[in-house]
Design goal:
Layout (H helix, E strand, L loop, with lengths): L2 E6 L2 E6 L19 H6 L3 E4 L7 E4 L4 E6 L6 H4 L4 E2 L7 H14 L7 E9 L2 E9 L5 E2 H6 L5 H16 L2 E2 L8 E3 L5 E3 L6 E2 L5 H16 L3 H15 L1
Antiparallel strand pairs: 1-2, 2-7, 3-4, 4-5, 5-8, 6-8, 7-8, 9-11, 10-13, 11-12
Helix pairs in contact: 5-7, 6-7
Bound molecules: adenosine-5'-diphosphate (ADP) and magnesium ion.
């Protein structure tokens, strides 16, 4: 992917050049990309993602986008829900996640194509959002586990997929059954690379899998069998 950065007043934007090429003729990529009101006015909001309910699905004609603002959870949210400490554009959550997702995408790994990261600087802090291409018809592995429609073959593919990411050095710090999506062809995808990074082999692979096991236990009545299938796929591909 070809990434380009631009500045517009107090906004810093990093985007995939090709995803926004049609925009260059009409209006330049800018802050409007990350403004939910802009998309609502254009009647392009087709829904919102499950979960915290902050992520919007946007109709772009040929494809759909997911617009996700960065939000803190837990205790930190009481300080400020949306603001993070400014340490330079490249150290923002959004720039990091966009660059990492682009690197994984370029390796042919099953991740959504990243479109743009937007950062609004507010003195010593910033707010940010990320746009990716929506994986059409995808549902969370969590839902498939809860309804008992994740068969052994599918779970083995999930395990193989995780091994491929691990072979590439991806430490996914929030590897749970909601961050694994299953498309309408029953193929697994990995999403949500906030705070994730590429690193040399270590003990983190095991931590990732332990995190996933706790998540699978939450959603699947047959957790042991599910993890057994995931591990079989993982071992085969690692
Ligand atoms: N590219 C995508 N295609 C389809 N759905 C997505 C995509 N990205 C995010 N989602 C949906 O939005 C939800 C939230 O996105 P995620 O990146 O996991 O952020 P967070 O968990 O931090 O809110 C996901 O659980 C998923 O349901
Ligand atoms: Mg998530």
């Amino acid at each position: 992917m070809r990434l380009a950065a631009l500045r517009q007043q107090n906004w810093l934007i990093l985007h995939d050049v090709d995803s926004l090429s049609d925009e260059a003729h009409s209006h330049q990529p800018g802050a409007w990309l990350f403004d939910p009101e802009h998309w609502r006015r254009q009647q392009r909001v087709t829904g919102q993602a499950p979960g915290r309910g902050e992520s919007l699905f946007i109709d772009r004609g040929a494809e759909q986008w997911v617009l996700r603002p960065y939000r803190r959870g837990g205790l930190a949210a009481q300080v400020s829900e949306k603001r993070y400490l400014w340490l330079g554009a490249e150290r923002t959550r959004a720039f990091r996640e966009l660059r990492l997702t682009a690197a994984l995408f370029d390796q042919g790994l099953p991740v959504p194509r990243p479109v743009a990261a937007g950062v609004r600087r507010l003195g010593a802090s910033y707010e940010a959002a990320l746009i990716t291409v929506r994986i059409e018809g995808a549902r969370a592995l969590a839902s498939r586990l809860s309804e008992g429609s994740a068969d052994e073959a599918l779970l083995e593919r999930v395990g193989e997929m995780i091994a491929r990411f691990h072979n590439s050095g991806l430490d996914h710090v929030d590897l749970n059954a909601r961050n694994i999506l299953i498309d309408d062809q029953d193929a697994p995808w990995l999403i949500d690379f906030d705070r994730c990074r590429l690193r040399a082999a270590g003990s983190w692979q095991t931590s990732n899998l332990e995190r996933l096991t706790r998540s699978v236990a939450k959603f699947s009545p047959a957790c042991d069998a599910a993890m057994c299938a995931i591990s079989a796929g993982y071992d085969r591909a690692s």
